Write a sequence for this structure.
């Protein structure tokens, strides 16, 4: 049986950036998260230790829009290891103006169960 | 684009706000809340919303809306409220002059050159990025040297990449955000170089923008040479001493085609200077009282034009206050005058507002000069609070309740951040 150890993380849940200490039971299980100021921080510590996830924000081509790109985001978090892959998958998308905020431009990206949605309205130029 | 086209520009408004970014939008809503009816929000871009449109990343609104939004979502929510509240939004227009009696001169794409009068004015012009000239980087003058915020607009709004191999000077938040953004667009980000011994951006951005992508952060390092005739071909970087002198014996070359600068923001106070507002030499923004009123009667200021914020939520909070005060001023409602001057003391670079009163609650924003752990923020002998750590990159704010000042009879209070 491996020994318990402590790993340090910096919470990215909000700009406060709490310094977290995650105590591990040596088998990948979290015993305790310390240093958090809110529930979000405690959850982040546990998740970051066992299954790190990230939100992704990027922009896609828009035809006839006021700008050349419209910003999009993942509707939820995706595994950290898939951030690059998801960004690549989104790169080829092209939508057409006008478009409303919250429009799904790619559903269930790479089977993650997460959609890619626009984060603003854009009129036709 | 979210716009409500302004058909008719009135000669007189209750409150006029110069700048339609997050500060201006919140101020407009604040003025409306206090009963101002004719409110004009002027912005030089083709849509109000300011820099938020290009800040497509997450991290906005946790304080203000209680959920994590992207910049555009934050902007759109706010702008919708502004329009729904019947506030006139005049875009593509520049306020180029202001007089002490609050006459404003506008240069407008749709309205031409116009003079309008305002019952109260809110200055919310924001800030611009420091450029290469501000830090005097030696070397040649090729293309490919640009500010991080400009690169952000290129990539996020226009779909243009600034280059393929990028070196970033300065660890400001926009630079860190762009390191990640460019990496995700397939650009090679070779490193972030920061002359100070600590990072200038938020810690969370160091983690999620640099560590996540194995982008090296070189503290106490700077660029000492930029090379290239037409286009950047490379830079030389070197570690610096405690006095920021580069150690050329340990310098090395990096081949790159682009240099991004994330070396700070300068409040845009050209308009403030037109009416000789008192400016704070540390913030380069106007000196303001507890209602965000400047040294000119009826002229208020808020957001980055007063001091550089790291969180838009605090801009909104501060600007709502300024807008309410502008509304009150127009309606002839006056708060008791401030009777305490705040003095930045140990490890405090500045504080905003510059004065407070003893009759109501105040939020004091401040920035420390150097990082410190396990410290106490002390407001004279009236108030003290303990904090785990402070960084120059992270604005500190404290809320002072009137009860604390009940027994205080002096006219100045010194703010110190001291080691416990």
């Amino acid at each position: 049986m491996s020994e318990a150890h402590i790993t340090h993380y910096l919470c990215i849940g909000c700009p406060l950036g709490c310094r977290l200490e995650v105590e591990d039971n040596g088998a990948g299980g979290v015993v305790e998260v310390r240093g958090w100021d809110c529930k979000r921080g405690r959850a982040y510590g546990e998740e970051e230790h066992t299954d790190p996830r990230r939100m992704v924000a990027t922009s896609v081509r828009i035809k006839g829009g006021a700008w050349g790109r419209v910003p999009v985001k993942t509707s939820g978090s995706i595994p950290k290891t898939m951030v690059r892959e998801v960004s690549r998958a989104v790169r080829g998308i092209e939508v057409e103006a006008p478009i409303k905020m919250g429009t799904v431009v790619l559903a269930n990206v790479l089977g993650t169960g997460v959609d890619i949605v626009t984060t603003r309205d854009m009129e036709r130029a | 684009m979210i716009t409500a086209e302004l058909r008719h520009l009135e000669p007189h408004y209750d409150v006029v706000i110069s700048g339609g970014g997050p500060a201006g939008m919140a101020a407009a809503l604040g003025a409306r809340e206090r009963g101002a009816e004719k409110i004009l929000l002027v912005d030089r871009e083709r849509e109000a919303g300011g820099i938020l449109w290009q800040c497509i990343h997450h991290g906005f609104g946790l304080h203000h809306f209680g959920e994590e939004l992207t910049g555009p979502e934050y902007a759109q929510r706010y702008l919708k409220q502004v329009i729904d509240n019947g506030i006139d939004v005049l875009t593509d227009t520049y306020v180029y002059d202001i007089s002490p009696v609050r006459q404003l001169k506008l240069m407008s794409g749709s309205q031409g050159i116009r003079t309008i009068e305002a019952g109260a004015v809110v200055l919310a012009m924001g800030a611009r990025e420091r450029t290469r000239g501000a830090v005097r980087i030696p070397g040649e003058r090729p293309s490919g040297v640009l500010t991080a915020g400009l690169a952000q607009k290129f990539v996020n709004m226009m779909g243009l990449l600034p280059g393929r191999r990028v070196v970033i000077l300065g660890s400001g938040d926009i630079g860190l955000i762009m390191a990640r953004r460019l990496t995700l667009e397939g650009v090679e980000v070779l490193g972030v170089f920061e002359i100070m011994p600590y990072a200038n951006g938020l810690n969370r951005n160091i983690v999620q923008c640099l560590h996540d992508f194995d982008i090296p952060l070189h503290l106490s390092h700077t660029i000492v040479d930029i090379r290239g005739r037409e286009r950047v071909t490379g830079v030389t970087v070197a570690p610096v001493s405690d006095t920021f002198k580069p150690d050329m014996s340990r310098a090395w070359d990096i081949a790159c085609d682009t240099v991004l600068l994330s070396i700070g923001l300068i409040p845009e106070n050209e308009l403030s200077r037109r009416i000789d507002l008192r400016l704070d030499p540390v913030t380069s923004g106007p000196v303001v009282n507890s209602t965000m009123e400047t040294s000119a009667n009826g002229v208020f200021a808020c957001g980055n034009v007063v001091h550089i914020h790291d969180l838009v939520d605090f801009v909104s909070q501060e600007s709502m206050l300024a807008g309410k005060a502008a509304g009150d001023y127009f309606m002839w409602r006056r708060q008791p005058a401030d009777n305490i001057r705040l003095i930045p003391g140990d490890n405090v670079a500045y504080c905003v507002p510059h004065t407070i009163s003893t009759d109501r609650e105040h939020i004091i924003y401040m920035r420390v000069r150097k990082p410190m752990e396990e410290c106490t923020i002390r407001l004279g002998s009236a108030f003290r609070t303990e904090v785990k750590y402070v960084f120059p990159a992270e604005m500190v704010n404290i809320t002072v309740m009137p009860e604390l000042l009940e027994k205080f009879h002096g006219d100045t209070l010194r703010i110190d951040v001291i080691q416990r």
Chain B has a mean pLDDT of 95. The first helix of chain B runs from residue 22 to 33. DSSP finds eight helices and 27 strands in chain B.
